[in-house]
Amino acid sequence: MSNENFFQELKAKAFQREKKKLSKYAVLSSDGFRFKDDKTEKTDHRLPFAIDTDRILYSRAYARYIDKTQVFSLVPNDHITHRALHVQFLSKISRTIGDILGLNTDLIEAISLGHDIGHPPFGHDGEEMLSGLSKKVLGKKFYHNIHSIRVLEYLEKGGNGLNLTFQTLDGILCHNGEEDYVKTEPDIKKGTEKIEITISKIEKGEIDYSPSTLEGCLVKICDT
Questions:
Q1: What is the pLDDT of residues 164-175, one digit of tens each?
Q2: 3-222 CATH
Q3: Total-model pTM
Q4: Who has the most CB within 10 Å: 17, 62, 158, 170?
Q5: Long-range contacts for 39-47 (Cβ within 8 Å, ≥24 apart)?
């Protein structure tokens, strides 16, 4: 048996185990969709959303979480939560709840770890300052969730991007704005539309941009 066939057999068995375990409302890893062909995935035993998680975890952008504070900036207190710790807390809380609900915890972890990749330094003050400059120069606000997509898909790996699944990118893009909702529910009509369509909605000021999956909704709620 060739190495490729061996890994494909491992993956097929993992897909079967997952299908038996997950709720009918969960996203199956076999439904993970990438906009670009991914040759390395065909010889990989990991499931698609687990691959997303590892690509985010080992990215240069993830390493830059270090020393970025979550809310406050330039404080001498080492116990003020840093962004690297925040995304780990979010991942743990979301995965714990997701496991109870029978959701896809690989997808939950990928969204959680990548959701603040595009956040600037100096907490939310940094985002407000960048947004003010962006409006003056470009005529539009700076959104850290949009910048997360820009970093992951257009800047990482020398401009080639990480080629993450639509479900992971969509969850990252739609993770914020939870304070504007009475309830959060998945936008299942979205399908696998191009990420740029949702980005356009956000830049136009539309607040109704829910994640396409329950996993994305769960991360959004836990990040409140």
A1: 999 999 999 998
A2: 1.10.3210.10
A3: 0.88
A4: 170
A5: 42/4, 42/8, 43/3, 43/4, 43/7, 43/8, 44/7, 44/11, 45/7, 45/10, 45/11, 45/14, 46/11, 47/11, 47/14, 47/15, 47/18, 47/106
